[in-house]
Amino acid sequence: MPAYDKLRTLAQRLSEKTRDNELDWEPTASSDVYQTTLGSYVVKISHVERHPEEGDLIVIEILNGEGTVIEKFDDEDMATMLGSQKQAWNFMEELYNTARRRALGTEQAIDSILEALDDDGIPF
Amino acid sequence: MFDWFGSIGILVSALGFGATLWQVRRSRNAALAARAAANEARDTVRLYDTLSDLSQALAIMDEAKRLNRAKRWEVLLDRYALAKKLLVHMKAQNPSLGHQHTQAIASTISQLGTLEDVLEQALQDGSDPTKRVAHFNSILSKQIERLDGLLAEVKASPDRRQ
After folding, report:
1. Among A48, A120, B53, B108, which one has the highest count of C-beta atoms within 10 angstroms of its own C-beta?
2. Cα separation of A30 and B154, whole Å?
3. How much is the ipTM here?
4. Does A35 sit within 8 Å of B106, measured CB to CB?
């Protein structure tokens, strides 16, 4: 399915660019949703909690310039694209966690703490 | 015998033709000048509209921070929707906005949408959004800062919108 192929490519490119720190993810009003803007489109990634028997979902949404969701897919759709539910979940969860860390500035915080810990001036 | 009348006729025709060409050229220049003036006037009106939409959106977002602190949730929902509408209108009116500006507006529209959704959901669930006010306002402050920069640029140099 060409549409699925495109979405898989999109998810993979988002993952690569996020890992390479080339996308500016930012927090939103929802603590489980992060967004990045590409041109006049916004990509949102969210962690949706569900009943334990259903399992959580990682959802990617694409919004147009008016804020309308024009495309949406989750790790279950990715499983159809990748052929494995576990592989799809791992992929989407890693993307979500990396986007979250970028949005919250976790890497800088850890670097800064490590730098402080390495500083000889600390008296211990 | 030299045909004086014929020659004078040709000369008069040539002069008439020249005069017509000159008139046509003058009319064309006048039409072009009128079109340029009309375009300029339209751009000026659009610039005022842009400044008005952007300023109003910023004022509403500032007010939203106060409404958050005052826990005026229902009013807030209207304000988020209105600010979003103004930004969408502004973006539609300026299709040639620069890349950075387009991104800033798209990002803010999306953030306002999420603020609206989160608040709406909280009200439906009957949960109290009070404990998240600081986070909501920090999101709003970041967007206000971003749009303030855009407003300053549009005010300083209308040409930079291109």
Report:
1. B108
2. 31
3. 0.86
4. no
Best residue of B89, B114, B115, B125 to probe chain A, by most A CBs closer than 10 Å = B114
Q: Which residue among A28, A37, A65 sits closest to B139, beta carbon to beta carbon?
A: A28
* SS3 category, B162: coil
3-state DSSP call for residue A108? helix
- A27 to chain B, any CB pair closer than 8 A? The answer is yes
Write out the DSSP string of B20-72: HHHHHHHHHHHHHHHHHHHHHHHHHHHHHHHHHHHHHHHHHHHHHHHHHHTT-
Q: Which residue has the higher pLDDT, B12 or A42?
A: A42
Query: Residues A35-40: what's their mean pLDDT?
Result: 94
CA-based nearest distance A86→chain B, Å: 29
pLDDT tens digit sequence for A58-96: 999 999 999 999 999 999 998 888 888 899 999 999 999
CB contact under 8 A, A29 and B88: no
Q: With a cut of 70, which residues of chain B have pLDDT below it?
A: 1, 157-162
Task: Name A60's Cβ contacts closer than 8 Å, sequence gap at least 6.
Answer: A10, A11, A14, A43, A44, A45, A72, A73, A74, A92
Global confidence as pTM: 0.82
